[in-house]
Model the fold of this input.
Amino acid sequence: MCFCSTPTTISIIGNAGAAGESGVIRIGTTGIHTTTFIAGIRETPTTRGIAAGITTNGQLGVRASPALFKEAIKPMDKASEAILSLKPVTFHYKQALDPSAVQQFGLVVEDVAKVDPDLVACAADGKPFTVRYDEVNTMLLNEFLKEHKRVEEQQGKIEKQQGAIARQQNQIEPLTGGLQKVSAQLELSKSASQTVLNNQ
Done:
């Protein structure tokens, strides 16, 4: 392993570096180094951590969220409906990759690519390699918010209907009382008429 560095500007381990770079750390070389192990991370607890990601050219970093890094911002609207066609699965990785065969939960990248190619990241050969789960999560949030709005609108309609029913009930009760009085008077009239007839 070669290690060389230019003070304060670039650090290189196992990499030839690139001309004109400053403030860059390069570890390993694409095509030569295919696996990376870093100790002291897996069981080290942290708080307020943020998820790191890696670009297709191997740059490590975090997804930028400020508006100043974005353009063409618009509501997701119906774009998130693609996730409704995704088919979550359970599976085990092959023995060579995971000898313990722990059950996994996720998606099959080839299937996701058929639904929405923007939800996958490809390997160097251009073939789908991994699902962009952060995007799936954001789309789920959008679908949840749309459904929540529908539920609130439905609840508003139900409350209006319940109010209308209560008003109708308030109108029906006096009418029912009036009908009962009229019925009672008719019964009295019938009884009186029958008594008169019987007396004749």
The helical segments are 109-115, 133-199. Residues 1-32 form one domain. The longest strand covers residues 3-6.
